[in-house]
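re: ur question from earlier - yeah i can do the single chain one, its not a big deal. heres the input i used so u can compare w yours
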Amino acid sequence: MKNLIVALLFLLVIISCDKFPGKTDYAGVPKSSKIAEKQGLLISKYLPSQKTVFIDGEKYEITDSWSSYRFRTKNSSEITKTNYEFLFDLRNVKTGKSLIDEKTTSTFLNKSVRNLEKNYGYSIGIGIESRLLSINYLKKEKPISPEIIKIEFKNGSQRQCIEFKKASH
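and the output i got, formated as tokens:
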């Protein structure tokens, strides 16, 4: 219940950031680990235990995975350090499209991609940020980006667990 209240408050803050209708100052996450590193937002890169996963009969490749801070606002250079995100991108091997471009509903994510950790930040699992899969962490709950993050992918009745291990710096 506490996590739900925090999530609703976080959503309210995001919505209230709009200064003009249709305009927002909300700073999204970096679209890749390279961009995060260039912007000084990168916490750590992660290496998956396997590069390919199967979801609903389709083969996907994990192309990038990292943890990152974000800027306070879109046009700010001030970094928000009260929370951070673990982000990863999956690309369909046949089409080259992102998983998010093919399957965008939260129902799909809850059914086919699952965070196996018990304690994590704002949400109840995996979300979508800037066309990437993400897990939000509250820094007060997890001060350091986890050494290992376990994600489960479902393909029909089969389950595949991938461990994302923090890369050495």
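The beta strands are 42-48, 52-55, 58-71, 79-92, 113-115, 127-129, 132-138, 148-155, 158-166. not sure if urs matches, ping me
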